Structure prediction request, 590 residues.
Amino acid sequence: MNALAEKYPVEIEKILAKYPADQKRSAVMPMLYLAQRESGYVTKQALNEIAEILEISPTEVAGIVGFYSLYYDEPAGKYRIQVCTDLPCALRGSEEFLNKLCENLGIQVGETTADGLVTVEAVMCLAACDHAPMYQVQAFASTPAAEHITYHENQTVESTLELIESWRKQAQGRK
Amino acid sequence: MQEFILLRHRNIPGLNKLEVYQQNGGFEAFRKVVTGMQPAEVVDVVKASGLRGRGGAGFPTGMKWSFIDNKNWPHYVTANADESEPGTFKDREIMEGNPFQFLEGLAIASYAVQANAAYVYLRGEFWQLAHQLDQRIAEMESAGLLGEHLFGTQYSLHIYTHLGAGAYICGEETAMLESLEGKLGQPRLRPPFPPSYGLYGKPTIVNNVETLANVPLIIANGAAWYHTFGTEKSAGVKIFSLSGCVNKPGNYELPLGTTFRELIFTHGGGLPEGRTIKAIMPAGASSSLIVATEQALDTPMDYESVPALGAQLGSASVIIIDDSVNLQWLLNKTLHFFKHESCGKCTPCREGTYWMMHITERLTSGQGTPQDVELLRSVASQIKGKCLCALGEFSIEAVLSGLDRFPEDFKIPVK
Prediction:
């Protein structure tokens, strides 16, 4: 049984249609996004299932997870706030922003809040250098697919804490 | 009001809607080439326009197209929308504001090399942009601008988006092709170059988003028109992404050959009060540091003049460094980036970026010694010329130019 294939038949068909029939391996990246959409990371089972669908080895799929920054092999927060602290943003205060945000949340950079809602990370340039401080949010669980990654520019610690609060309320509403 | 070639959406509201784009002449150039021009004629017009690759290398676009191997089929075109160089944010604005002009350019390029499938490789972080592009591609299909037998001819074209997942190296064209094939994004040994051995081993043209966005207007208005902008050897306009210690960071579309002074002070509003300009990085984190002398500020930003200052124009991501910035800190920043983004294939880059980052960490934490500065220079010098792609080279540009041109920033007291 291939749980991924059973769960996302339409999505998988759409993904495979993008590439030549004899080049299924090209679909490994979109398939990984699909696989980690719910749990926020790629499980061992999902690795095997993707490998089976694309007719490559699980090791090759695992290599892709390890190589690219946006795939994870461990769970973290339902929302990953990824703050750009590269040179142009750092020249405009992004490091102070990141440190103050973490201080307010009572975590260190890279850690997850105790309720499992938010992980805050420092990441490389996000191509929004004129709107620092800025971050992207990689959201999992019930977020619509089109909003899996969103940009948040010209941010303050206050605006970010408000955003987190709105997620918290949403999460409580669902319980 | 400024006239735009690439950032036309700033003057035309709603240009990112197909209807508005078509009302403003959109897809007339694509129709013209498919219904009335031979592929080789299209290549000749782009060649004559003097358009050069805007992704960083500045390679003549028409010449690249003419290299496509016509003995090996099928052909592919891939648009490089991986935009990941620190300080670069121009392709994002084009794809958000003027996406159809980019897609039309991609379609024309595809016709010019007779490709029936084209891919847009976007960095994974451009997730929402990719979803918007998917919708726009679907609209083009419905409008008969993509698909089979276009405009009643035998020519067919499909465009697909493909999302990366956070890897700077995939902006390097052969690493991008590997990634598109579902492999690790690691560069290939070149030659062979993509026009003879590209995606799935087939002849492939890789062009940057901004490069392609120029093409529809070149076809519509002719090669001579494009030469009315820019300089003799660097024709046309360029989007300069201005960032760092400047009052008005942002994208500025200007003719090639505009001076640094005009970009920074006339358009960018100069530096915050009380600050003076110390250095310029004209090509993002991959850039050499230029000492901001009066002569440097008066230098035209084009493919010939910037190298004369000991730097490259690259993708024209101009980062401004003011007098409050210590270059030990700056190098630690850029090296942290390159260490993170090194794909690991070539040892000098993989090991070198790691050790250079650690040396600058010692320096910035006050633990450094004068020997560390020499060690930094030594490691950097040993990376030069020893890697498959440019990433290793890029990582040492700021290091060596910083050490040579700003020695006062690296004077370490002997303990």
In short: Chain B has a mean pLDDT of 97. The first strand of chain B starts at residue 76 and ends at 81.
